[in-house]
Amino acid sequence: MTQPQSVGVVTPKTQRFTEPLLLTSGGRLEEYELVYETYGELNADRSNAVLVCHALSGSHHVAGYYADAPDNIGWWDNLVGPGKPLDTRKFFVIGVNNLGGCYGSTGPTSIDPATGTSYGASFPFVTVEDWVASQARLADELGIQRFAAVVGGSLGGMQALSWTLQYPNRVANAAVIAAAPKLSAENIAFNEVARQAILTDPDYHDGDYTAHGVVPERGLRLARMVGHITYLSDDAMAEKFGRSLRHGKQVFSYEAEFEIESYLRYQGKKFAGYFDANTYLLTTKALDYFDPAFEYGGNLPAALSRAQADFLVVSFSTDWRFPPERSHDIVQALLHNRRSVSYAEIDSAAGHDSFLLNDAIYHGVLSAYFDRIKVTAHV
Amino acid sequence: MSKLRYDFHAIAEWIGEGETVLDLGCGDGSLLRHLADTRGVLGYGVEADPENVKASIRNGINVLQIDLERGLAGFEDGFFDHVVMSFSLQAIHNTIGILTEMLRVGHEAVVSFPNFAYWRHRQAILNGHMPVSENLPHQWYNTPNVRFFTIADFEDLCAMNSIVIRDAIGFDEGVRVREEPNFLASVGLFRLGREH
């Protein structure tokens, strides 16, 4: 086996859709664009396509880097590339920015053709199901009838699961990583704190901050800070920061004294510099609403009875945002329906963020699973 | 393929075509691979060891990473036709608990284990040492085994817990033993059920 490599320089593409998309919320988008990237080659019978779905702050930029920004490396670059678990010598991998996003696909920062100004707060609510429906249209445009696999972590894992329910015959395999079949009340509570931070920022202006020439930066910072706490584990924080003081002693100040304070402030500030507040609001609501068992009276096995795919479910031992028990729920529901499913519970100290990190066992499990997926040879 | 093929072959004879089978401590998935290939079973393996989880996935087996000491709480009553545990019972603390769970989630249970009363093992003890053999390959200080029992002990345990022994085979290093299994067999293989 050769050394794992980068897919190299990549270029995003844009697909325009003019057929209106009806949304779960009752809203509709008359037309929209999806920005996506692809890695590897689609084979002759179009059987080797893998869709990678992104999480809250992710994007279509899954792997590789840009010619004019070599430091801008894809968020799952450690997973996707020649010789990597999602091997681009075998698979044609697609990353797509979700509707409502702020990385190029139509979202709150886009121009509403009806008004000639940006959507802002008027951008309709979108759900996991809406994202999947729009991704299916992109697959149609690319001539992909059936994915060899749909893969995602966290909110991306929810999309992978939803794919198997909305389009059972279009997904051969689903890898549902660090995900949950629905959020807990505690999860929703954290999302609500993050939203309130944004909604109560004086610069939010009911979502039309762009028209006022400002961004609710303070709200975004706080939202990201609270989010970050839930992505890490107590152990990981203790190991990385402990009670370390930046000045080596207590200086009795509200400036960032403890290293963890400094870290959270830095992460918040960085995030507020590039992420759109309305996208953050929409995306956390999509997380909260996701619950495929809801229309089945909470019966997850009944909800998953439509699935036809083979599944890989992965959880991480210290993930308290989407703990292993939520993955157990998915596994048990699939088992009830006699689906093919494998489940790995990775021993990791890094909490929810583990799904993004390098871990030999985690990547070994993914390699073992993706290696056994049969696709016809490249032409 | 580290496990003993004769054990697999005998187990396969008890498994019907197209059954749903759970293999507890499935290792690299060899038994389920064999049962899928020869009986067309829908198989699920349970493994705690990450290397074995990877190996089972590569083997094309459905494997679930679960710690057996925590029981089988997630599995539904009577879901499986057979629940198999090959050479793992002696490594589990909660012996009665796991046997009870196997017969809750499965219609029948199949277990194999090393017989500590095998004559060569008795000879080792008489010579003053704990037995080390093909089926007990570890030293006393590094063995993963936590329960040391014989075929006769196991039969008594089944009787005490209303577990019906539907079939029992003894093997002497791969060869079927016809008589005195508690003395002549290095391995016991049992097919278990409940009174209806």
Task: Write up this protein.
The complex is a heterodimer of chains A (379) and B (196). Chain A has 379 residues and is an alpha/beta fold. Chain A is 32% helix and 14% strand. Chain A has helices spanning 128-141, 155-166, 185-199, 217-231, 234-240, 259-272, 277-289, 300-303, 324-336, 360-372; strands spanning 13-17, 21-22, 28-29, 32-39, 49-53, 80-81, 86-87, 92-96, 149-153, 173-177, 310-316, 341-346. In chain A, strands 1-4-8-5-9-10-11-12 form an eight-stranded mixed sheet, with helices on both faces. Chain A has a two-stranded antiparallel sheet with strand order 2-3. A two-stranded parallel ribbon of chain A has the order 6-7. In chain A, strand 9, helix 2 and strand 10 (173-177) form a beta-alpha-beta unit. In chain A, helix 1 (128-141) packs across helix 2 and helix 3 runs antiparallel to helix 4. Helix content of chain B is 32%, strand content 27%. In chain B, strand 2, helix 3 and strand 3 form a beta-alpha-beta unit. Chain B starts with a helix and ends with a strand. The interface between A and B is medium-sized, with 22 and 21 residues.
Largest sheet of chain B: 8 strands, mixed
Low-confidence runs of at least 5 consecutive residues of chain B: none
Spell out the helices and strands of chain A N to C: EEEEEEEEHEHEHHHHHHEHEH
Gap between N and C termini of chain A, in Å? Answer: 21 Å
The biggest sheet of chain A, with number of strands, parallel, antiparallel or mixed sense and barrel status, is:
8 strands, mixed
Cα distance spanning the termini of chain B:
37 Å
Radius of gyration over C-alpha positions of chain B, nearest whole angstrom: 16 Å
* Rg from Cα of chain A: 21 Å
Order of helices and strands of chain B: HEHEHEEHEHHEEHE
Mean pLDDT of chain B: 94
Cα shape of chain A? globular
Helix content of chain A: 25-40%
Task: Classify the secondary structure makeup of chain B into a structural class.
Answer: alpha/beta
Which spans of chain A of ≥5 residues are poorly predicted at pLDDT below 50? Answer: none
Structural class of chain A: alpha/beta
> How many H/I helical runs of chain A?
10
Largest interface: A-B, 22 and 21 residues
The largest sheet of chain B has its strands arranged as 3-2-1-4-5-8-6-7
